[in-house]
Write a structure and sequence with these properties.
The structure is a single chain. This protein has 4 domains: about 35-65, no CATH class; about 70-230, Substrate Binding Domain Of Dnak, Chain:A, Domain 2, CATH 1.20.1270.30; about 240-390, 3-Layer(aba) Sandwich (Rossmann fold), CATH 3.40.50.2030; about 405-630, Rossmann fold (3-Layer(aba) Sandwich), CATH 3.40.50. Helix 4 packs antiparallel against helix 6 (about 135-150) and helix 4 packs antiparallel against helix 9 (about 180-190). A hairpin with a 7-residue loop joins strand 1 (about 45) and strand 2. The strands form 4 sheets. It has a 6-stranded parallel beta sheet, sandwiched between helices. By secondary structure, the chain is of the alpha/beta class. The structure holds FE(4)-NI(1)-S(5) CLUSTER with Oxygen and iron/sulfur cluster. FE(4)-NI(1)-S(5) CLUSTER with Oxygen binds next to helix 13, helix 20 and helix 24. Iron/sulfur cluster binds near residues 45 and 50. Keywords: 4Fe-4S, Iron, Iron-sulfur, Metal-binding, Nickel, Oxidoreductase. This is Carbon monoxide dehydrogenase. InterPro entries: CO_DH_a-bundle (IPR016101), CODH (IPR010047), HCP/CODH (IPR004137), Prismane-like_a/b-sand (IPR016099), Prismane-like_sf (IPR011254). It catalyses: CO + 2 oxidized [2Fe-2S]-[ferredoxin] + H2O = 2 reduced [2Fe-2S]-[ferredoxin] + CO2 + 2 H(+).
Length: about 625
């Protein structure tokens, strides 16, 4: 790799990296060359006779128990997708518990979007007319609980209510509709233990089932309940990159995923601003990393500090007074790094602790108290900053975010109030918009930080492809200046520019909408699923027939594999920029990259060159347009 990052803010901080602790790129170099068996998916530690490794070019060609490459790879993949789904489902479950409490007791959380709650209840078959909102909410919570507690047969309520009808029928035919999220996660772990499933097609079907657990009991459920509690995102403007950390403010960086905590920190940072001023600061600047950044960005305009791969660099600016983390994507390295600075690292979840960090546990009743304490710790740390260690950057960009489905519909309905999807469909039909691509997912140290996200998207928008984005992809594109009106002027193709200018006008801006629409965090990939479902149903076609695709250019997390599996099951072409550990199973690889299309409508392809990846995606879009007679 020639360069670590294309992010100019990250690069500046990295240039003045002050040891003695290593950063993620240095640790990566120490790992090289990475294990070939692991890279191919050909190692197994599922029982005490192992670890077993398979030689792709000869002997041994089986593990001690007789498992061959396809079985090993399929078992490993199912475990990865299960772990990813477990992360999202646990996230959704925590939110569900808070919603349940918020409906029945006085406490720190309240319902913000009653309309969303009613709309969802209606979709789930709950009568809403003349009922108290809290009663509707309780019935909705009961429906959500069923998706974790249903024993015996039955199907996920959230899936049946929200997935395209044609997909539900297909998944039923394949026998992959989950019964309850927890049961499927348990069963997948059982299925992959020693001496269990030795049929790779059966293991892949289970993988699809876990992808659906992720899509509906993780992503969709999580997004829906978060919107009810904290509000459905609306257009908001803000800034991105490490330049949002400035010397004059107390800087609190939120990192993680579930907005339960970050919402409270935002609230308490406002309340305690006078305390920060007494300590000599101008104000308190909350900013975010990873998906929690997306959550507070799109609901409150809180600026984005950076994304996954540059998380250490936020501390290395010497300006982060407190970094408050909850769950997922938090590098264990942060603890030793924070010790080299004045930064207080605060862990808040019982399953994410770090030696050397301050643990302030979040709980429903203590949420306010805990958030107040965390902000106070940040203010106290501010006065301990070491000027010699300040390594700041001024790099930052402007952005517009908040493209929830509701926002998109509300903008489009200014053109056609009766049929808001019609103008979008017309623009796709006449070719001003060739198609829609979602770029999602992480950074991965194997790819120059942000490089593939940014260059793939620039290619696509120049070809009149509208891009929607979530997660660390959204963060990468934000930092590269792709989420503002100027990006439309600079990089969008002529058709896309025309329609974005019109939409900008009807939205009341005197500028075009950005060419990349920020739809939220990784759980908010459900919003992209909702758009696809709505478009397919409006046109009376399948998702597979739409001129759309998805891409996780720099994925690293097991969650991304779970999301990708769901997208393939929806019928999407899914691009990955990094090869997952599957090549050791030749038949498994052939299925995932080709055969899946016949069975599921979607498939994966892997390409690490942005221009080549954009070409494959564009050709796919053209083929789908042709299929629709466009
Ligand atoms: O859930 S994109 S690196 S932060 S896993 Fe993690 Fe990947 Fe970022 Fe968000 Ni999603
Ligand atoms: Fe080896 Fe089979 Fe045990 Fe895996 S399950 S470690 S392949 S013997």
């Amino acid at each position: 790799m020639e360069k670590f990052t294309i992010d100019t803010g990250a690069e500046q901080v990295l240039q003045n990296w002050q040891g003695p602790v290593e950063h993620v790129w240095q640790r990566y170099q120490e790992q090289e060359p990475q294990c070939g068996f692991g890279s191919l998916g050909l190692c197994c530690r599922h029982c005490g006779q192992g670890p077993c490794r398979i030689n792709p070019f000869g002997k041994p060609d089986k593990g001690i128990c007789g498992a061959d490459g396809n079985i090993m790879v399929a078992r490993n993949l199912l475990r990865q997708v299960t772990a990813g789904a477990a992360a999202h489902v646990d996230h959704a479950y925590e939110t569900l518990e808070v919603l349940e409490k918020a409906l029945s007791e006085e406490g720190p959380y309240k319902i913000t979007d009653a309309e969303k709650l009613k709309g969802l209840a209606h979709k789930l078959g709950i009568a809403v007319e003349g009922k108290d909102i809290k009663d509707i909410g309780k019935e909705l919570v009961a429906k959500a609980r069923e998706d974790f507690q249903r024993f015996g047969s039955g199907e996920l309520n959230w899936l049946v209510a929200h997935a395209p009808k044609e997909r539900v029928a297909k998944w039923r035919e394949l026998g992959v509709i989950p019964r309850n999220a927890d049961r499927e996660i348990r069963e997948a772990l059982h299925q992959t233990t020693m001496g269990m499933d030795a049929s790779w097609p059966n293991l892949l079907l289970a993988t699809v089932k876990l992808g659906l657990v992720d899509g509906y009991a993780g992503l969709k459920l999580g997004t829906d309940l978060q919107d009810i509690l904290f509000g459905t995102p609306q257009p908001v403007f803000s800034e991105a990159n490490l330049g949002v950390l400035t010397e004059e403010n107390v800087n609190i960086v939120m990192h993680g995923h579930i907005p339960l905590l970050s919402e409270k920190i935002v609230e308490w940072a406002r309340k305690l601003t006078p305390e920060a001023q007494k300590a000599g600061a101008k104000s308190i600047q909350v900013s975010g990393i990873c998906c929690t950044a997306n959550e507070i960005l799109m609901r409150h305009g809180i600026p984005l500090a950076t994304n996954f791969l540059a998380q250490e660099l936020a501390i290395a600016t010497g300006l982060t007074d407190a970094m408050i983390v909850d769950v997922q994507c938090i590098m264990p390295s942060l603890a030793s790094l924070a010790r080299c600075y004045h930064t207080v690292l605060i862990t808040t979840n019982p399953i994410v602790k770090m030696d050397g960090a301050t643990h302030l546990e979040w709980s429903y009743q203590q949420a306010d108290e805990m958030a107040r304490k965390a902000v106070e710790l940040a203010i106290a740390a501010y006065s301990k900053r070491d000027p010699a260690k300040i390594n700041a950057t001024r790099e930052k960009t402007t952005l517009m975010v908040g493209f929830s489905v509701e926002t998109i519909i509300s903008i489009l309905s200014k053109i056609d109030a009766q049929e808001p999807l019609k103008p979008l469909v017309q623009e796709i039909s006449n070719g001003d918009i060739q198609g829609v691509v979602a770029t999602v997912g992480c950074n991965n140290v194997k790819i120059t930080h942000d490089y593939l996200h940014v260059n793939l998207v620039k290619e696509l928008i120049s070809k009149d492809v509208l891009v929607v984005t979530t997660g660390c992809s959204a963060n990468a594109l934000a930092k590269a200046g792709l989420l503002n009106s100027e990006a439309t002027e600079k990089w969008a193709g002529p058709g896309l520019k025309k329609i974005l200018s019109l939409l900008g006008q009807v939205a009341g801006l005197d500028k075009p909408l950005p060419p990349v629409w920020h739809m939220g965090s990784c759980v908010d990939n459900s919003r992209i699923g909702d758009v696809l479902t709505a478009l397919a149903e409006y046109l009376g076609v399948t998702v597979q027939q739409l001129p759309v695709a998805a891409s996780a250019p720099e994925h690293q997390h097991e969650k991304a594999l779970a999301i990708g599996t769901w997208a393939v099951a929806m019928g999407c072409l899914v691009h990955l920029g990094v090869m997952p550990p599957i090549l050791g199973g030749q038949e498994v690889t052939a299925f995932l990259t080709s055969g899946a299309e016949e069975v599921l409508g979607g498939k994966f392809f892997v390409e690490s060159d942005p221009v080549k990846a954009a070409t494959v995606i564009y050709e796919h879009i053209q083929a789908k347009r042709k299929g629709l007679g466009l």
